[in-house]
Amino acid sequence: MTHRAQCAQLHARPALYGLKPSYGEAVTFLRGYDLATDGGALRGFTEWLVVRSGHRTSLAWPALALRTALAVPPDASFSAGALTEEQDRAAFDALFTLLDEFFAATQSPMALARMYSDYRALMED
Fold first, then answer.
1. Fewer beta carbons below 10 Å: N end or C end of the chain?
2. Is residue 117 within 8 Å of 103, Cβ to Cβ?
3. Whole-angstrom Cα distance, residue 116 to residue 81?
4. What letter would DSSP give residue 7?
5. Are 51 and 119 spatial neighbours (Cβ–Cβ below 8 Å)?
6. Which among 25, 32, 67, 26 has a CA at the least distance from the CA of 46?
7. Where do the domains of the chain lie?
8. Is-contact 97 8, C-beta < 8 A?
9. Alpha-carbon distance 1 to 86, whole Å?
10. Can you tell me the distance from the alpha carbon of 14 to that of 11, in angstroms, rounded to the nearest whole number?
11. How many Cβ atoms from other residues are within 10 Å of residue 15's Cβ?
């Protein structure tokens, strides 16, 4: 099963993995999944999110994806500590939409290389 298919299944049936449809639980699972694949599952996801946003940042993918999901401006102060149930579910769904877009955009080695080139250019400005 591809990483894209695995993530789609996790999104569709989180209870199958012992999870609630919660952003925090999904992030915890995905971090473990990424570690289990020696960083291969989500390689480039942080950089892709940075390029997608068009803003330099040192945030890790969980914070970037959450800010994207909730449409938090890049320069705004934000704490993820107290999400409402609706925000948590929206962030959960948005995370998997972002992952699907990431897997689609970086399917080929050339597309992944182009994304890293764009990331480097953005970070060097």
1. C
2. no
3. 31
4. H
5. yes
6. 67
7. 3-43+60-107
8. no
9. 31
10. 6
11. 8
Assign residue 13 a region (left: φ > 0; alpha: ψ between -120 and 50; beta: otherwise).
Answer: beta
Tokens of 80: 């993820």
Residue closest to 11 by CA, chosen among 60, 61, 20, 33: 20
Q: Does 2 or 125 have the greater pLDDT score?
A: 2
Structure tokens at 118: 């764009």
Q: Summarize pLDDT for 44-93 with one digit per residue, the tens.
A: 999 999 999 999 999 999 999 999 999 988 777 777 677 899 999 999 99
Q: How far apart are CA 15 and CA 13, in angstroms?
A: 5
- Concatenated DSSP letters of 69-109: HTT--TTS---GGG--HHHHHHHHHHHHHHHHHHHHHTSSH
* 100 vs 45: CA distance, rounded Å: 11
